[in-house]
Amino acid sequence: MFVYADNAATTKMSRAAVEAMLPYLDEAYGNPSSLHTAGQRASAAVQSARNTVAELLHADPKEIIFTSGGSEADNQAILSAAALGAKHGKKHLISTAFEHHAVLHTLRKLEKDGYEVTLLPVHENGIVTAEEVAAAIRDDTCLVSVMFANNEIGSIQPIGEIGAVCRKRGVLFHTDAVQAVGHVPIDVQALQVDLLSLSAHKFHGPKGVGVLYARRGVLLTSLIEGGAQERGKRAGTENVPGIVSAAAALRESCDHMAETSARLIRLGNKLIDGLRTVPHAALNGDAVQRLPGNVNFCFEGIEGESLLLLLDQRGIEASSGSACTSGALDPSHVLLAIGRPHEVAHGSLRLSLSRYTTEEEVDYMLSEIPPVVEYLREMSPVWKDMERGVKPHLL
Amino acid sequence: MALYSEKVMDHFLHPRNVGEIPDADGVGEVGNAKCGDIMKIYLKIDGDIITDVKFNTFGCGSAIASSSMATEMIKGKPLSEVKKLTNQAVTEALDGLPAHKIHCSVLAEEAIQSALEDYRRRQEEAEQ
Fold it and tell me: What pLDDT is attached to residue A117?
């Protein structure tokens, strides 16, 4: 059996998304900036996609900027807010310790440029509270950036409450919603979000297409100079096939969100309950406030990369926060941020499901994963020391 | 996954000499669980020859493969030869490792040298 359980990394494009794209590859291939019929057809398609995305986020089409992906949208949102802040002498930004690197590394760059950054610690369940955000806001704070849902452990943040706090204090609020859009309901007005980033390939759309929502009145800084595309805020000929396809994928995901979400919560909980029977294993992230279909566990005494390789041999494609899977020295900053010790964080496994995941696939994972964990533990000196009482169990 | 050579995958998927030797003549453990790698090597030595060797490893695919290959390379070999085992030799025998995984072969070399050290210490204690 083959099981793709790495949907938080990327998803398979839906049939609808592929088909939406096709006419714009070799039929309606005009440049939207061109005056002729072909160009105007492409331009109309981009406008229609913009209307769709705006409608699904409860935004105005003028507030939607298409980008090359989530990372670009994150970079532009943060750098724009920082530039706006600097105009008023506000050079303090607030974020969390477990953001995506597209956010963390942009903030680090700003720090080198003289900005001050506060990274809020995250609770054990992978959540920051609006009170903690409120307490960190200063008179010179120009931006709060808190991810909608964490990409590794799936914990969903109280975005509406944080939005209310920021609006009340007059501070711009950005949310990296790359993992959440298309999976949980999002209304930028109700949530009082000023800036939001999303990425199409996380909801069965194409890679290379992202969106930055910027509330009217929030002046964006261009990262790419050139033509006047995207209201002058993002130069470069529009990725017409990708944009059209992204909108189709988002429409489809939102249309089926209620049923998909109910099914994925049930399948995810089945996986969680099954993996909890493995001794000395623990779920990462909040048990309830989590993305449908996100399952993330730490298994004590083993290392994640060897676990992934063995699962891959059995047809299960997943991911891990182990250092060895990224080429880094430290394991996942997310797992460290929620308080997992290094040695435990190395043994993590993320299974992320999608609407294409079947019950049989979940059953197969439940039958394959525990014996592989057991096999690796049998050759692990760390596990043996724990079993003999030489070292304490940490989970 | 094409991250590793076929040799590495073979030794990772079918590791040789996994286990412990309860009455080992020398035991060496190196690495650190915090960093995600620990290797423990058990040696049985008769006269000048490594008659048996077993390993336990906590680590990634290349750490397990390096342990397996290194134990194969020293089994049945005289101590004089084993002392000269280098991480480069282990890496070459595995048809190479990705640059950021070379430290796995270093750990294998260190684990064996540490087990030999332990053997020498025990010999000295026995003589006294």
Answer: 98
In this structure, what are the phi and psi dihedrals at residue B120, rounded to the nearest 5 degrees? -60, -40
- 8 Å CB contact of B18 and A305: no
Which residue in B6, B13, B32, B35 is the catalytic one? B35
Which of B58, B67, B107 to probe the A interface (max A CBs under 10 A)?
B58
B chain contacts of residue A378, beta-carbon cutoff 8 Å = 18
B26-32/B37-46 β-pairing: antiparallel
> B24-75, pLDDT tens digit by residue?
999 999 998 888 899 999 999 999 999 999 999 999 999 999 999 999 999 9
Answer yes or no: are the C-beta atoms of A3 and A293 closer than 8 Å: no
The residue to which tokens 């490594």 are assigned: B50
Q: How many domains does chain B have?
A: 1
Does residue B56 sit within a domain? yes
Count CA atoms closer than 13 A to A162's CA, side-chain side. Answer: 30
- Of the options 3.30.1360.60, 3.30.930.10, 3.40.50.300, 3.90.1150.10, the CATH number for the domain spanning A256-387: 3.90.1150.10
Residue closest to B20 by CA, chosen among B125, B122, B121, B115: B115
Written as one string, the DSSP assignment of B39-107 is: EEEEEEEETTEEEEEEEEEES-HHHHHHHHHHHHHHTT-BHHHHTT--HHHHHHHTT---GGGHHHHHH
Would you state the structure tokens that stand for residue A47, as one six-digit string? 């406008």
> How many C-beta atoms surround the C-beta of residue A112 within 10 A?
7
Confidence of residue A326 (pLDDT cuts 50, 70, 90): low
Q: Please identify among residues 26-85 of chain B the ones whose CB lies closer than 8 Å to any CB of chain A.
A: 29, 33-40, 55-61, 63-64
What value of ipTM does the predicted structure carry? 0.95
CATH (domain of B71): 3.90.1010.10
- Which of A62, A63, A60, A108 shows the shortest CA–CA distance to A82? A108
